């Protein structure tokens, strides 16, 4: 079977089982398929038309082709290839949001670009996912798009960890968001990592503000905030 591809990237080159790969003739998806199902801002429409060269279904992971147990949380996981146009170089978060919001199943996006490297060019991949905050029961969830650093094709791999489809989804998200295939307590780990990043940025800003402040009362106020942020950061690290 000839596998669907996004540039030179296929399901198999990412390390996914060949049993999950989509046939080449069934891979390409029209961009209009996603534009017709949701209202588009002018900016997102421009990105879809000009920044995304093609969209390809690379793999569909299901209990039947992964050997994993089904669960009510995650029936299947799609792997979509987004081939960027020649002049596009960044992961299009709004396109990931547009497509992922239209399906209940999990979607891993393999974004492929051509980039300059050592005087020549090479194909690179960044994996992306859209995931909801843990939030509170009964409240409308807030979603965020996360992506990995760019890696050359051949070094961009995904592991299939877990015994259920839900655990596999959490593992794939963990690989993309946190760099590890550990699926345990993922939402708590993401929240902790995001809080650390927020505190690190706050400490950097407050440190600079404290150095610039001339008024003693203002310096004391900033120092108190800085001290509190440093203590919280130390407790999380």
From TrEMBL:
Record Pfam families = DUF4391 (PF14335)
What is this protein's record name? DUF4391 domain-containing protein
Organism (species): Bifidobacterium pseudolongum subsp. pseudolongum
């Amino acid at each position: 079977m000839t596998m669907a591809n996004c540039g030179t990237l296929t399901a198999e080159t990412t390390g996914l089982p060949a049993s999950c790969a989509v046939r080449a003739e069934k891979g390409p998806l029209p961009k209009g398929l996603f534009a017709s199902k949701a209202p588009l801002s002018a900016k997102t429409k421009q990105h879809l038309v000009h920044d995304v060269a093609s969209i390809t279904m690379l793999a569909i992971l299901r209990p039947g082709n992964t050997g994993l147990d089904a669960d009510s949380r995650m029936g299947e996981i799609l792997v979509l290839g987004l081939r960027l146009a020649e002049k596009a170089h960044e992961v299009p978060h709004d396109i990931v949001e547009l497509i992922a919001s239209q399906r209940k199943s999990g979607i891993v996006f393999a974004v492929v670009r051509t980039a300059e490297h050592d005087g020549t060019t090479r194909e690179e991949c960044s994996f992306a996912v859209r995931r909801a905050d843990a939030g509170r029961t009964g409240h409308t969830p807030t979603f965020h798009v996360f992506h990995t650093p760019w890696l050359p094709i051949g070094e961009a791999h995904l592991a299939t960890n877990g015994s259920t489809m839900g655990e596999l989804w959490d593992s794939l998200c963990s690989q993309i968001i946190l760099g590890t295939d550990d699926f345990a307590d993922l939402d708590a780990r993401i929240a902790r990592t995001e809080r650390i990043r927020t505190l690190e940025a706050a400490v950097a800003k407050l440190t600079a503000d404290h150095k610039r402040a001339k008024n003693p009362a203002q310096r004391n106020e900033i120092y108190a905030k800085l001290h509190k942020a440093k203590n919280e950061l130390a407790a999380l690290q």
